[in-house]
Amino acid sequence: MPIETLRQNSAQIAAEMVRLRRAIHTEPELGLHTPKTCAKVRAALAHLPLDWREGPSTTGMVATLKGGAGTGRSVLLRGDMDALPMPEETGVDFASQTAGVMHACGHDAHTAMLAGAATLLAQRADTLKGEVRFMFQPGEEGHHGARFMLEDGLLGGGDHPLPDAAFALHVFPNAPHGMIGGRAGPLLAAADQFQITVAGKGGHASLPHETMDPVPVACEIVSALQAIVTRKFSVFDPVVLTVARIEAGTTFNVVPDSAEIEGTMRSLSAENRARLREHVRLAAAGIAGAHGLTVDIKIIEGFPVTVCDEKAVAFGEVVAGDLFGKDAFLRLEDPIMGAEDFSYVLEKIPGAMFFLGVSHEDEDWTQCCGIHSTRMMIDESVMPRGAAMLAGLAERFLAHGFA
């Protein structure tokens, strides 16, 4: 079938995708185990000829659709399923019914669009040569779900090779309605967390000379961390370091025994990621030591850099143009310093992640609440476009590769 018919076919299943998205939104789940969401996905796709693989480390699922035109390439499409530990303030009638948990990053839409793509491709299975693997992934929000699914062999390995290509979509509310965007090379940053505890000796605030006050030392460390960014790293391979929490003491007239500093480090290359970690350790330990204090430094490793294959991005631009017109695709000039664990997949499999603008047509998208906002909302009318894009990527890749 012509790839253009995916638009019409996707519009015909729009209501099904919206129902699934809202059902998932109403009952959001956190982390690596999302059994209610998985059950909803399995029920929505129970009528399709899919082979399912699951676990054991997570509730992640991979459904495989085998083409009827014989063996050939394999392609992976991914949608994440987990929510965020935060309240919802959208006021929609399908708002979260789980206190303190919300789908504020669009994973409910990602899952519904992936289910839609599975439906579209199943309708065309007789013409497909090869297989499509649909990756329904929990634990993207800081839990390394993609890494666990890779380690469990759900994406391939051994007698079941990894796919030849992998693609994902991520919705963006504060982007033009229906826009599909991407870039070759680094798309999203690596993200690590640091926790620094400065250990001193407390006492009466009127006698600071009899204490070893950790507070001014912690402040000096914070200032030094900012200088690291501007004096140790090139602006052409940028890093971001943000101190997000400083905590010390209990009252106004007591020098505390310790002070805590916590924050995030973002980088766009493996080299700078390693250098930034080392400079944080050196600065914190050196400054504390100069004052006769000690520090405990913990680096909590986050996701690696999300690097998109140049051929895969060019391929996606062609697919978007064929589906929606030549102006549908936007080449992003700069990376975004957020992080994504689809990066683990792209370390193993050539492919790309693309962004999908889900602002309402009549809104100023620059003023929309972005992802991770308690008021984040999407225009559900864009979801058929996302499902068609995913399906189009898979269908064309099976037929032609990245050519």
Order of helices and strands: HHHEEEHEHEEEEEHEEEHEEHEHEH
Question: What is the first-to-last residue Cα distance?
Answer: 19 Å
CATH overall fold name of the largest domain: Aminopeptidase
Binned, the helix content reads: 25-40%
Name the CATH class of the largest domain: Alpha Beta
**Into how many domains do the coordinates divide?**
2
Notes on the structure:
- The model has no long low-confidence stretch (mean pLDDT 96).
- The protein contains ten helices and 16 strands.
- The strands form four sheets. Strands 1-2-4-3-5-16-6-15 form an eight-stranded mixed β-sheet, sandwiched between helices. A four-stranded antiparallel β-sheet has the order 10-12-8-13, with helices on one face.
- Strand 3 (74-80), helix 4 (107-123) and strand 4 (131-137) form a beta-alpha-beta unit.
- The radius of gyration is 24 Å and the shape is elongated.
- Helix 1 crosses helix 10 (383-400), helix 4 packs across helix 10 and helix 8 (310-324) crosses helix 10 (383-400).
- The protein has helices spanning 5-12, 14-26, 35-44, 107-123, 145-151, 214-232, 270-290, 310-324, 342-348, 383-400, and strands at residues 51-54, 61-66, 74-80, 131-137, 165-172, 180-182, 185-188, 190-199, 203-204, 239-248, 254-255, 258-267, 294-300, 306-308, 329-331, 351-357.
- The chain has two domains: 5-187 and 305-400, Aminopeptidase (3-Layer(aba) Sandwich), CATH 3.40.630.10; 190-300, Alpha-Beta Plaits, CATH 3.30.70.
- The longest helix is centred in the last third of the chain and has 21 residues, at 270-290.
- It is of the alpha/beta class and 403 residues long.
